[in-house]
Design a protein that fits this description.
Elements (H helix, E strand, L loop, with lengths): L1 H31 L3 H17 L1 H11 L1 H20 L4 H14 L2 H13 L2 H15 L1 H5 L2 H10 L1 H22 L14 H9 L8 H27 L3 H29 L2 H22 L4 H15 L2 H9 L7 H29 L5 H23 L33
Length: 417
């Protein structure tokens, strides 16, 4: 439990770091003389660095374990937050945001590595779902509470406090997390060869398309299109748009948590994810076909899409069955690259579609966009239906050590293999 809470704190910080810029952007931009495009570049720097850092994250988890990996990266995130707090212009702010994004990379991956190594497969989905669901508290803290704190204290003191909290979390990771017993790499796979080995596993190929699409279409709506859709199609004002977005966000958190118990009931991550993706795809198509006719129906469908669409942890639990023990870190990181890469591609492609379809009325525009999202997800789900449920041979991961493996780090150094 102690290890779970410490890793949850790290992931919550990562979630907060992902979205805090939106709340402090007006004051930060004014103080540093930044334009809207400059602020957009700061946000994109976080995501670009986060995605790039997945490669060393996977390698370091396999080679050095989660304790040193997560702590070291969090220390970089703390330095980046401090640098952003002290920035005097665009260059300093850009470097700070990039360093924060890089440092947040293993926050969730470290948790998944621990769950995959220390617990049996049937508990991986439950623990991952709880981690992702509760970790969304970072998103909530980065909304109204951050706006109120920034108004009272200013953005620089807030970021300095965040830097201190992040550094404290790094120290907690060092003190309280124990690395699983080290596994010898029989092939001595290096940084890129390990990722290539994961990419070359044919059993995973039918899973890749749904990983690329499932999270991408949900996050594209929540982070990019929900406000414009509710405003232009249904005439919602700013408060109503915010309430609609909050409903979808709350559904996403509840859905992430609920997938764990659901998978335990179904006893099969593939069937659980398959059902969730099917529901999400059909809800997207229905939103495109009928959402313009009723604001209540549109908000309800957005909530369904948020709840059913956050199947990240279950898809990861299914893919995890195929990762060799010595490649577990690179396996979860590779899948995360696909999840995040798909999200970036979906936002870019959907933005290009909206720009090219300026002649359409808003209702017709979003009808085509959402129906297209649904069709893409249903097609990927059809491919996913052919994925094997489990490896053909015996499980690729060794039996987990007893639960006491999560003891404080003081006993860890002597217990490594």
């Amino acid at each position: 439990m102690t290890a779970f809470l410490v890793l949850l704190l790290a992931y919550t910080i990562s979630q907060f770091d992902r979205g805090f810029l939106a709340m402090v952007a007006p004051d930060l931009g004014r103080d540093l003389g930044l334009s809207g495009s400059d602020l957009a570049l700061l946000s994109s720097a976080w995501f670009a660095a986060f995605a790039l850092a997945q490669i060393p994250t996977g390698f370091c988890l396999d080679r050095f374990g989660p304790r040193r990996t997560v702590a070291a990266f969090l220390a970089l995130a703390s330095l980046g937050t401090g640098a952003l707090a002290a920035a005097g212009g665009f260059a300093g702010a850009l470097a700070g945001m990039a360093l924060i994004g890089f440092g947040c990379a293993p926050a969730l991956m470290g948790s998944l590595y621990v769950f995959g190594r220390l617990y049996p497969p049937e508990r991986f989905a439950m623990l991952s779902s709880l981690m992702i669901g509760f970790g969304t508290a970072g998103d909530l803290l980065g909304a109204t509470p951050l706006a109120l704190a920034s108004r009272a204290l200013g953005w620089r003191p807030i970021l300095l406090g965040l830097a201190a909290v992040t550094a404290g979390c790094a120290l907690l990771v060092l003190a309280l997390i124990r690395d699983p017993a080290r596994i010898r790499d029989p092939a001595r796979t290096g940084l890129l060869r390990g990722f290539a080995a994961i990419a070359g596993m044919r059993a995973l190929w039918p899973i890749f398309p749904v990983v690329l699409v499932s999270y991408a279409v949900v996050i594209a709506i929540r982070s990019l299109w929900i406000g414009a859709y509710l405003g232009s199609v249904h005439g919602f004002d700013a408060l109503a748009r915010g309430n609609g977005a909050l409903a979808m966000s709350a559904a996403m958190a509840l859905g992430a948590i609920g997938y764990g118990p659901l998978e335990r009931l179904v006893r099969d991550p593939k069937r659980t994810a398959l059902g969730g993706c099917l529901v999400t795809g059909l809800a997207l198509v229905l939103l495109g076909l009928a959402g313009a006719g009723s604001a209540a129906l549109a908000v309800a469908l957005l909530a369904v899409i948020g709840a059913a669409g956050l199947s990240y942890a279950i898809l990861m639990a299914h893919a995890r069955r195929f990762f060799p023990a010595h490649l577990l870190g690179r396996g979860v990181s590779f899948m995360n690259i696909l999840f995040m890469g798909g999200a970036g591609a979906a936002q870019g492609l959907s933005a290009a579609f909206v720009l090219r379809a300026e002649g359409l009325d808003p209702a017709g525009l979003y009808a085509r966009l959402f129906a297209g999202f649904g069709a893409a997800l249903l097609a990927a789900t059809a491919v996913y239906a052919f994925a094997p449920r489990a490896p053909a041979l015996s499980a690729t991961l060794p039996p987990p050590p007893p639960p006491r493996a999560c003891a404080p780090a003081g006993r860890a150094r002597g217990g490594r293999a």
